[in-house]
Predict the 3D structure of the following.
Amino acid sequence: MPRPLIGVTLDAEKPGGYSKFPWYALRQNYLDAIDAAGGLPVALPHEPDRVADYLERIDALVVTGGAFDVDPSYYGGGARHATVITKDRRTAFEFAVTQGALDRNKPVLGICGGQQLLHVVLDGKLIQQPVIDWTGEKPLEGFKFAYDVALVSGRDGSPIIQIKSVSGVP
């Protein structure tokens, strides 16, 4: 039996620093985990015109996170706060491929910002969070986070992992 093909979204960065060209990034452990679970991971470049092509081939989708925010215009969040950083092409692609995967009853896993995007695709709202000035302290340094999750039925009866709570422990 062939391994299921799991599409994984990428982060995107502008030229500078690492490369003089725009570049994609992805944490290796995401791909390693999919492989160890029996899947065949494939990276999905941000090509909105290729969403239907990707969805014809993949069996499931993993939407990753990154150091950016979902544009408030996607969820009726009002004016964009000055601290909100967006990656417009990435968000447009991820929104379309996530919506398409759900419409085709394909499993979707959102990680960090990917979970936020999945929430928005499912008509959820987010709260724009301004950066908090901790006066030089790093209050989360050394913390580990625990997630209380449940498997629930989605709008079409397909399973969805619901995060019930998140707690940090030193």
